[in-house]
């Protein structure tokens, strides 16, 4: 019996930054390399063929996604990006920005037909602004929550879901052990939750970060709230190998 073709995962982690084109000084990320290697190993155990790339410039990041248009894929395409960022952009290791809409355009049905029907799943670890989330008190038996004004919907290609480490306008936290967001993703993928449908799995990550993570350093007490946008048309189970 022939073995099913493996799904594909692309992980890009930028830890060492140079250049001076950004308005802010982009520092070195300690712990990100080890975290990325853990994610690579975990996805491999879940039947993914993983490409792990370190310290790519903005142009090289675009080129990596362009290569997906000429690759055979399994049932899913997963991409994890860990870097500095701002609203709508990710920085390469040369401190040059890559617009997320540019990445999504590269993977659109018109430019990348091989991925047209394959669910495309993004986990993006980066800041989306400079605000600090102080969190709110939660009443578990309260009524319906008020709208949060979330409006940062991106022009994602069909069959795509994108999960961000934080809400629009806010910072994402990182320490010597890794990021709050990707560490929560690791815990879920290594636990029984990896069998869940993707939208339920992402909601579980939201809960993990919102209730178990807060800054204990300079910005003590600050929180982080991941969020995701999706245009998937059905439930998918990408990690239930």
From TrEMBL:
Protein's GO biological process: proteolysis
Family classification: Belongs to the peptidase C14A family.
Signal peptide location: none
Origin superkingdom: Eukaryota
Gene3D superfamilies to which the protein is assigned, alphabetical: 3.40.50.1460
Organism: Smutsornis africanus (Double-banded courser)
GO molecular function, one term: cysteine-type endopeptidase activity
Any single Pfam family the record assigns to this protein: Peptidase_C14
SUPFAM superfamilies: Caspase-like
Gene (name only): Casp3_0
Boundaries of every Caspase family p10 domain copy: 178-240
Domain Caspase family p20 span(s) in chain numbering: 5-131
Protein name stated in the entry: CASP3 protein
PROSITE patterns, per database record: CASPASE_P10, CASPASE_P20
PANTHER family: CASPASE 14, APOPTOSIS-RELATED CYSTEINE PEPTIDASE, MUCOSA ASSOCIATED LYMPHOID TISSUE LYMPHOMA TRANSLOCATION PROTEIN 1/PARACASPASE
InterPro entries tied to this protein: Caspase-like_dom_sf (IPR029030), Caspase-related_regulators (IPR052039), Pept_C14_caspase (IPR011600), Pept_C14_p10 (IPR002138), Pept_C14_p20 (IPR001309), Pept_C14A (IPR015917)
């Amino acid at each position: 019996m022939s073995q099913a073709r493996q799904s594909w995962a692309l992980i890009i982690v930028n830890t060492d930054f140079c250049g001076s084109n950004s308005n802010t000084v982009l520092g070195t990320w300690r712990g990100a390399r080890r975290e990325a290697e853990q994610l690579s190993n975990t996805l491999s155990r879940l039947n993914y063929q993983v490409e792990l790339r370190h310290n790519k410039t903005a142009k090289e990041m675009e080129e990596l996604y362009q290569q997906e248009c000429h690759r055979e894929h399994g049932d899913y395409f997963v991409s994890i990006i860990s870097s500095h960022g701002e609203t709508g952009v990710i920085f390469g290791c040369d401190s040059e920005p890559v617009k997320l809409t540019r990445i999504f355009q590269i993977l659109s049905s018109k430019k990348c037909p091989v991925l047209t029907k394959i669910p495309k799943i993004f986990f993006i670890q980066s800041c989306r602004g400079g605000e600090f989330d102080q969190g709110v008190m939660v009443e578990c038996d309260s009524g319906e929550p008020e709208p949060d004004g979330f409006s940062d919907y991106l022009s994602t290609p069909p069959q795509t879901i994108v999960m961000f480490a934080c809400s629009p306008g806010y910072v994402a936290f990182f320490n010597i052990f890794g990021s709050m967001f990707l560490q929560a993703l690791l815990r879920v993928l290594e636990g029984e939750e990896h069998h869940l449908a993707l939208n339920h799995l992402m909601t579980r990550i939201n809960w993990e970060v919102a209730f178990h993570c807060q800054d204990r350093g300079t910005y003590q007490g600050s929180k982080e709230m991941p969020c995701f946008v999706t245009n998937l048309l059905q439930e998918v189970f990408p990690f239930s190998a």
